Structure formats: C-alpha cells, structure tokens
Amino acid sequence: MAKKTETKLDFGSKWDYSAAPESADHASIKEEYGLFIDGKFVKAEGGKKFASVSPSSEKHIAYFAEASDKDVDKAVKAARKAYNEVWSIMPPKERAKYIYRIARLIQERAREFAVLESIDGGKPIRESRDVDVPIAANHFFYYAGWADKLEYAFPGKTAKPVGVAGQIIPWNFPLLMAAWKIAPALACGNTVVLKPAETTPLTAMKLAELIHDSGLPAGVVNIVTGAGATGAAIVNHPDVDKVAFTGSTGVGKIIQKAIAGTNKTATLELGGKAANIIFDDAPIDQAVEGIINGIFFNQGHVCCAGSRLFVQENVKDIVIKKLKDRLSTLIVGDPMDKNTDVGAINSKEQLNTINKYLKIGVEEGAEIYQPNCTLPKKGNWCKPTLFLEASQSHRIVQEEIFGPVLTIQTFRTIDEVIDKANNTPFGLSAGVWTDKGSKIFNLTSKLRAGVIWANTYNKFDPTSPFGGYKESGYGREGGLHGLLPYVKLS
Amino acid sequence: MSRLEVLKTYKIYIGGAFPRTESGRFYPVTLRNGIVTNICLSSRKDLRNAVVAARNAFEGWSGRAAFNRSQILYRIAEMLEGRKAQFIEELMAVGATKASASKEVEASIDRCVYFAGWCDKYTQVFGSVNPVASSHFNFSTQEPTGVVTIIAPESPSLLGLVSCVMPVIAGGNTCVVLASENSPHVAVTFAEVLNSSDVPGGVINILTGKEDELADQFSSHMDVNATIYCRQKHLKKTKENGALNVKRIIDWSGKDWYKAGDDPYLLLATQEVKTTWHPIENIAGTKSGY
Q1: Residue A108: which residues within 8 A CB-CB, separation 6 or more?
Q2: Contacts (Cβ under 8 Å, ≥6 apart) of A187
C-alpha cells in the first residue's frame, strides 16, 4: 500500500498574532523583601539575601532574605507564642472571620497577584489569572467556614489543633500552594511557618503583606524565604509539630526519614507520572484537548500532569495526527501575553533537567516530535514535545520529567492498560477518556491513584481532596479530607 | 491407663496453607503444664513469601463486595465463638488466669463483629460528594492502601492481633502479621479459624518469630504499602524504613486494646482517599467543563 502523504496544519506562518500583553504597571515590587516573622518584616541574620530572576525575561526581580537556622527558630517561637496565647484559644468563629478576610483581600488584589506570579514563575498570565489566584482565594474562603464546624467533620471525635505547622512549598504553583497549606492549618487552629521555593518567593511575600494588612494576630502566619537549608531547619526544628511538604519524592523521603525519631506528623504531596488513557470510543477531539491540557498546562510543571499517554491501538493514527496538529497551534512565549499557551520553564536548572530527559528519550530509541515554533531569545524555554514509540522500560516513561514532555504508548485491552498504567511507583492522578460509563467506573476504581479525571483533566477545586497513593505521598489537601492532617482527634 | 493427649504442631500461615518456616528453625516455648512447644522461627524469606501471597490476594479481596467482606468477618466471629474454650485454654497455658483469658477471647470475638459491621458503612460515613464550582460531578471515597505488615502487640496476644487485623481487612487490605513472641499459640490457632471462615488464602498471613530478626524487613519490604507497629523497640527504625517507598507507618504502640479498639478511625488508617471527576453538561448555567 502506498504511503499517504501526511497533510500538515499550517498555523501562524502567514501572519503573526498581535501581542496582547497584560500590563504590569499596577503591580508594585519592592527592591528587597525581609522575612515575615511575628507580624513584622525583618532582615535575615547577618543580612543574607538572594535574588529572584524572571525565567522569561531574565531580569532581576528583587532580593529576598535567606533565613538561617536562627531565623527559623525565631519564626517557630513566634508561631508557638501565637498558638498558645492567641490562635488556639480564639473562638473558632472569630478565627473563621480572619480567614474570610484573607480570602477577600486576595480577590481584591487578584490582578496584581496574577501579574506577579507570571513574572516570577513564568507561567502564562491566563493560567495565573484564571486558575492560580482565584483558586487560592477560594481555598481561604472554603476553609474559613470550617473553623467553627469541625465537630461535624469528624463524627464521634473531638478535633484539636496539632500546634505549629512547618510548611514547605514548591515553585510550580507558588501562591496556590501557600493557600493549600495555610488555609486548612489556620482553620483548624494551628499556627504556621511557611517557606516558599527559592525561585518563586515573590507572591508568598506579597501574601505576607496582605496577611499583615488583614490584621491577623502577629505570629499566626510566619513566612521565611530561603533554599533547602531553610527548609531543613523547619523540618528539624524540635518545636514544629507537623510538617507539610509539596515537592519531589526524593526530598519527601528525606523528610519522612528526618522526622522518624520524633512525634511529628507529616503530609507529603510528592511526584507523579500520571497515565492518561484514551479509548477508541472516546470523543476524540475533546480527548485531544484534555491530553494537551493534561501535559502542557503550566509547562508540564505539575505533579499530576498526564505525562504518560496510552492510546488504544486502533485510534492511534488519528489521535497522534490531531495531537501534532494541536501542538503546532500552541503559542510558546511571553508569559505576560494573553495569547500564550506555554510559558517559560521555571529555572535554568529545571530546563537542564528537561533537556537531559529529551536526550535520554532519543538515546533510548523513542521518536521525538516537536512543532516548528520560534522561541524567544532570552529566557528558559522548551518546545512542547511528544515521544512516540515509547515503552514501559524507558526512563522517560518511568521518571517524572516535570516539563512539557508527553510519552505515547499504545494498548489493546482494558486489562493491559490497567496493568501498564499502574506499573509505576507513583500514584497521584490518572485520566480516562471514553464515552462508556461502565468502562469509566471500571477504570477509575482500578487505577491506583488519588485523583482520577474522567473525560476531563487537571481540574482543581477547594472542596476536592487532592493527594497520592504509593510514592506520590500521603495525606490529602482540599475538601473535608484536607482537614484531617491538621487536627488531633480524641 | 489414661489416654495420651495428641499435641499440635504449631505452624505458620501463608497463602491459606500451614507450612513450617522455610528456614527449618524453631524456638521453644514451655507451657505452664511443662509441655514444650516448638514454635516456627520465621525467616525473612517467609516474610517475602507471605508478602507475595498477600499481594496476590489483594485484587480479589479488595474487589469483593463490601457486604461480602462483612459476612466473612462476621463468620470469623462465629468460628471464634465456637472455639472459645480452646482459645481460653491456650491463653491459660501461657499464664493467663481463667477470668482474664475469657475476657480477652470475648473481647476478640466482639471486635470481629464490630469491624464486620463497618465493612459496608465506612465509605458512607467518611466519603463525600464535593460541590466543586465548575461543571463537574466530583466524589471522594476510601480505597484500601494495599499490603499491610503488622507487628502485633506482645500482649494481649489474641485481642491485640485481632484488633490490628480486623480494621485492615475490613477495608479491603491484605496483611502479614508477626504474632506475639511469647504467646504465639493463639495466633496460629486463630489462623485455623480464618481458614474455616471463608477468608481467602493470602488475605491474612501469620508468622511467628522474633521481632529483632524481622522488624527491619517488615517495614523495609518495597512491595508493602503500610506497616502497623505495636511495640516499642523498633519504632524509630520502622518509621525510618518507611521513607524507602513512602510507606504509611502507623504507630499503635501503647494502645489499650480493651478500651481503644472499637474505633472506625483505626480502619481509616490503612485507607487512601480517591477523588473522581466527571463533567456535567450545563449545570447551574455554567458551560460544559470538559
């Protein structure tokens, strides 16, 4: 049979999209940010600081204090004092009102936060505007209402706060992760020492300013900036009762081991390598959109990204054709442009990691596909990438890449794809695309993962618990079940 | 001439069968009447075999209807009740008074009944339908975490073991248990009860032996999802080992099983929460949210 010549979509070669940049004028950035400890902004011990750089423009953004062990100790002491003297004994309905206030302030300043998030982290403004910031505000709003209703959350038990929570968050959703951590902790009566990632501290410090404005009693929330050593100081501080960590499985394991000899409890939200499964009876166009959203949302810097695509063999050709077409329409570039689909890779380091995996994938024998798209000269960029003919034994299939890289495998039967999908140490999320309801429930009950999206992908909501099975961590964030890590039951 | 009593060889319980330890080793426990029983000194290889059996049994057991699991747990209670005298005798043989042995056996039977009842209820009480703001149907429900290893308390040897195992299997997990070192007889006899209660082979595997030899492996095995630890000596090591594969380490040391055992939150300790999303077309005026 003669091979048909492949038709190729010609997108954007005849004309360019006009730029549609979001203005950054109304967002103010200070030259330097201190640590937020006991309600005040203070310099780090010895005045140590580090710079944050925009991953898209490579411009210097601001300096941030680098917290030492001593600074962390001050923050934990402030949190303990606020816990004992104010927050744990405050009537819960008063606690609730403070948290509601924070939610409202974020809503009021939503545009500013969205702009800053995109400048500092590199994610498209559409995403920070429509996902990160509103859901962050909603998390505070949702958990605020739980503060005086905890007796209904745990039937047969009395819920008491745990104490001081040490919280360490990643760089992929800086403000949203801060909200996921702080809101339930405060609602349950705990006080907090939070450390944002060293590449994305800006919105966390803006949040500190906002919390300061809200009148929240001093010391209830403390935010300290720094890198791994600052995080270790929080984890190992003897007066921290609870550790909440979102980040890599590697660091999660270090934390689990570090607190082994203590009474500290932990919530770990770690890596993933989600299967996104598309059956021949799926609505193919919707599925393709879902696959694109599943892996290229936030440049693939998403622990629950649908990074392993499984296509039923008889629709492989059409799905891959449509994926390639769709790939060629993705606009990669300026995060501040409202047309942009794929923004900047968060850091040079992460770009190196992704490029390392691209090389590994090619060497392993998978077939790489990238669209023709021009990348900005400055900044960290990666073309959206497909790996065809990938197999279970490939490292690009087994390991979390945390970038815009999708591996594609095929399957014939349901049992086969369940085995393949579950054959991973991770278990954070999965996706299923089919029009048949009974098949959906068969799949969703057999996939060993904490969040299953059926005929949709990468949806988040404050009422919806999120968290993994197996090496993707333990504990849940969001929803009723997200309260449990922040209470002691008796 | 009086009749000579037939003595039982105490063996271990793996995959629904009663093998001796593959190591051929034993440790003697002398009963109050002077009879020496040779208890299997289980090896790490026995543990690995038991984990394989538990993993193989997981899909079937977790896939059973909750109502069916409930009936099987209740059946355990029925079988235990019928052999009450034997358990009391065995506890007394290692030092219990008649009163305390009776109390322990009765509490153990009642514990089985308690968790039998939870099998088809806990997801109703602790699951949720989540009112997400987008146009999706979204619900969260519990699922078993997988294969659970249990270092059962040294004492009470029967009630402690039963109290750890019941919440684990009620929720669809399978398990491997290390029995009390000095009072292992009731654990082996309990395996006989399980064997006649329609509990599928491999769902509960019971080893006898020494914690010092096995605690490390119980928590470091990479195909184990959770470890319940009920003693003191190896708690820290157990927690450290958890970090190898992000194992859920559950510390039930120092629990008073007479007072603290009837508690559905014990069942939740070996459960994961799964959240499922599906679009709904046109709910409350919002557009379809594929």
Answers
A1: none
A2: A95, A96, A99, A143, A144, A146, A147, A150, A483, A486
Inter-chain CB proximity B132 and A289 less than 8 Å:
no
Whole-complex ipTM: 0.96
Tens of pLDDT, residue by residue over A211-263, are 999 999 999 999 999 999 999 999 999 999 999 999 999 999 999 999 999 99
* Residues of chain B positioned with their CB less than 8 A from the CB of A442: none
Residues A65 and A128 in one domain: yes
A300 & A386 share domain = yes
Q: Which domain holds residue A310?
A: 275-454
Task: Please report whether residue A26 resides in a domain.
Answer: no
- C-alpha torsion sign, points A146, A451, B243, B181: positive
* Active-site amino acid positions of A: 269, 303
Q: Does B259 touch chain A (CB under 8 A)?
A: no
CA distances from A142 to A113, A209, A235, A341, A354 (A): 19, 21, 27, 29, 36
Residue A2 lies in a domain: no
Chain A interface includes B233 (CB < 8 A): no
For chain B, how many residues are written?
A: 290
Q: Does the residue A430 lie in any domain?
A: yes
CATH number (domain holding residue B65): 3.40.605.10
Task: Give the total number of structural domains in chain A.
Answer: 2
- A8 lies in a domain? no
Contact A240, A230 (CB under 8 A): no
